[in-house]
């Protein structure tokens, strides 16, 4: 038995061999599903006749307008009309046989509800995000999916959980931009057959458990205290080195130590008005008391 395709589209013939009468060819024609039937043509004719009879009042129902940011997908007796989506501007529909659906091409944003996500290091966090998308193929958005908006919202929530489940808590807190780009690529690939283009995805907030927040705060505080002690120790080392250099300078000139005493006394008296007991060395006055004679005791109190 042999089978061949010939003739009109969806037309098929097959043949079989008979010993007595030879080869007999039979033809089987399958109707084209895209062809318009007699009933559809008759309904279209009646619709045109109704428009003519009710003219000019029928013009209010036959002419429709779509805005610059809209497109209209027209169905005639359930079939999509040739030429794709109409608009922007004026287009014609037949009453009773034509229906149309408008699609908005502007960018739409929606919030992804907070999702309880278990990260790769077994930490439960609540994350919410915002998604921006627009329709790039109005025909696919109407024909291939029942509700592109609801489908995109559900897919965004699922994608958010899947992407965050592959990351650690530290990566989630530090690499938000990379996670947003990865989520946008996954969403755009999944919604492309629906005629939807995901333009941007942003993670809004990451909510941690209260106990984890306290633990992270205690860890950060301990880290800051450790750094403060290290800085204070380094400051003491630098100060001791500076004092050592100052002492070497004062050894060469003893009067420098006396001047330092007076400077310290001036600083203390300027800050607080109180009684100050300050040791005053006799060596400071030896220059002035040198003319009193060598019998003066160096231990004379002042």
TrEMBL record:
Chief localization: membrane
Transmembrane segments: 42-60
Family: Belongs to the band 7/mec-2 family.
Keyword Membrane assigned: yes
Organism for this UniProt entry: Papilio machaon
Domain spans labelled Band: 61-220
This protein's name: Mechanosensory protein 2
Keywords: Membrane, Transmembrane, Transmembrane helix
Compartments in which it is found: Membrane
InterPro entries found in the cross-reference section: Band-7_stomatin-like, Band_7, Band_7/SPFH_dom_sf, Stomatin_HflK_fam
PANTHER family from the UniProt entry: AT06885P-RELATED (PTHR10264:SF19), BAND 7 PROTEIN-RELATED (PTHR10264)
């Amino acid at each position: 038995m042999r089978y061949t395709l010939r003739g009109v589209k969806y037309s098929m013939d097959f043949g079989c061999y008979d010993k007595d009468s030879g080869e007999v060819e039979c033809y089987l024609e399958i109707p084209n599903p895209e062809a318009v039937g007699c009933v559809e043509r008759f309904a279209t004719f009646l619709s045109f006749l109704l428009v003519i009879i009710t003219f000019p009042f029928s013009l209010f129902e036959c002419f429709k307008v779509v805005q610059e940011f809209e497109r209209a997908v027209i169905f005639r007796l359930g079939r999509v009309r040739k030429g794709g989506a109409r608009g922007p501007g004026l287009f014609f529909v037949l009453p009773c046989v034509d229906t149309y659906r408008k699609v908005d091409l502007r960018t739409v944003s929606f919030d992804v509800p907070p999702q309880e996500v278990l990260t790769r290091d077994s930490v439960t966090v609540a994350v919410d995000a915002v998604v921006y998308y627009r329709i790039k193929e109005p025909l696919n958005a109407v024909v291939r999916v029942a509700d592109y908006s609801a489908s995109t919202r559900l897919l965004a929530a699922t994608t958010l959980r899947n992407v965050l489940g592959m990351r650690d808590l530290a990566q989630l807190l530090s690499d938000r931009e990379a996670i947003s780009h990865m989520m946008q690529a996954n969403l755009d690939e999944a919604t492309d057959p629906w005629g939807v283009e995901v333009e941007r995805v942003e993670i809004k907030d990451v909510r941690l458990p209260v106990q984890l927040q306290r633990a992270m705060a205690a860890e950060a505080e301990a880290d800051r205290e450790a750094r403060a002690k290290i800085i204070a120790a380094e400051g003491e080392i630098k100060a001791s080195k500076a004092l050592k250099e100052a002492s070497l300078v004062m050894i060469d000139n003893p009067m420098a130590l006396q001047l330092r005493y007076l400077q310290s006394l001036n600083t203390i008296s300027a800050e607080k008005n109180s009684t100050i007991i300050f040791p005053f060395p006799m060596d400071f006055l030896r220059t002035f008391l040198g003319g009193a004679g060598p019998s003066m005791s160096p231990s004379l109190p002042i």
